[in-house]
TrEMBL record:
This is Fluoroacetyl-CoA thioesterase. It comes from the Bacteria. Pfam families: FlK (PF22636). The lineage of its organism: Bacteria, Bacillati, Actinomycetota, Actinomycetes, Propionibacteriales. It comes from Nocardioides aquaticus. Coiled coil: none annotated. The gene is flK. It is an enzyme of class 3 (hydrolase). Keywords: Hydrolase.
Length: 135
């Protein structure tokens, strides 16, 4: 029996689903006053998807850290709205992984409407060595 080949880094994708709650709103997070999905929460969900997408290629003791984010928040999402957030590896250069991210409504009057789109760059690091450098 042979070991399975490692995943092709360029084909790594993750899809996560979320429901907007009161705790996810701009009013709750202090990024505005309206009861709609806050941009910081959208970003956190996109980053969670990027972590999930590259998790299969992390070495033992490895993790990834975000180093760059470009995100457009294109449509509002009220409390109760269901969203799908995707992340796909677009570029790999050694430890650096650049991923495209997107979020769409799964419910409401415009299912499939794009809520957000962008790009997140993550770098794979050894968790212990990374933390040791913090002093």
């Amino acid at each position: 029996m042979t070991d399975p080949s490692p995943p092709d880094r360029a084909s790594l994708t993750a899809v996560l689903r979320f429901t907007v709650t009161e705790d996810d709103t701009a009013a709750a997070l202090g990024s505005g006053s309206l009861p709609v999905l806050a941009t910081p929460r959208l970003l956190a969900w996109c980053e969670a998807a990027t972590c999930a997408a590259i998790e299969p290629v992390l070495p033992p003791g490895g993790t990834s850290v975000g180093t760059r984010v470009v995100l457009e928040h294109l449509a509002p999402s009220p409390v109760g709205r269901h969203l799908e957030v995707t992340a796909s590896v677009a570029h790999v250069d050694g430890r650096l992984h650049r991923l495209t991210v997107g979020a769409r409504h799964l419910s409401g009057d415009r299912p499939g409407a794009v809520v957000g789109a962008g790009e997140v760059t993550r770098v794979i690091v050894d968790a212990e060595r990374f933390l040791d450098r913090l002093g």
